[in-house]
Amino acid sequence: MSLPHAILTALLEKPSSGLELTRRFDRSIGYFWSATHQQIYRELGKLDAEGLIRALPSGQPARGQKKAYEVLPAGRAELARWTAASQDPKPHRDAMLLRLRAAAVVGTAGLEDDLRRHRELHERQLGEYREIERRDFPPGKDGREDRLRHLVLRAGIDLETFWTQWLDRALAEFARLPDADEPERPGARDT
Questions:
Q1: pLDDT digits (tens, 9 = 90+) for 151-187
Q2: What is the pTM of this model?
Q3: What is the C-alpha to C-alpha distance for residues 72 and 87, in angstroms, rounded to an integer?
């Protein structure tokens, strides 16, 4: 996914200023795509320069006034092109998994506490997503747009559920390790 396409999507849902986009990314889009305030403003400038969006005319120009943006037909066409294009899944990269692999050769000091911290963070995120689901997708809200948005949220819920369950397994495995602070003997396992 690319940030310009995330911004085009958000602006098609509702014309917004950069600040409003940042807040919307934090509240809803953040469960599948995050961006900083600076990244959003930088992309808004590029999209505007490419003729994909434009600043809405304001009543009276005022210093420091927020510019709200809307998507132009070229922007809608670009988003439709991108949506229809085929894309391969991206390989998953996670530093925690690499750290666990490294722990097999250098020892696990400090890693169990960080696994617990990650578990808490994923549990908290899962709670936030479930609250969004409860608030934004009550029974009977099943229009086409709602169903697709809910499907995206369900992906976030399912991923956080996976991570909390996997971290529970990892912590259970740590509890069974004979000496968690010593690396395994070289050559003891070759996987």
A1: 999 999 999 999 999 999 999 999 998 764 555 555 5
A2: 0.76
A3: 25
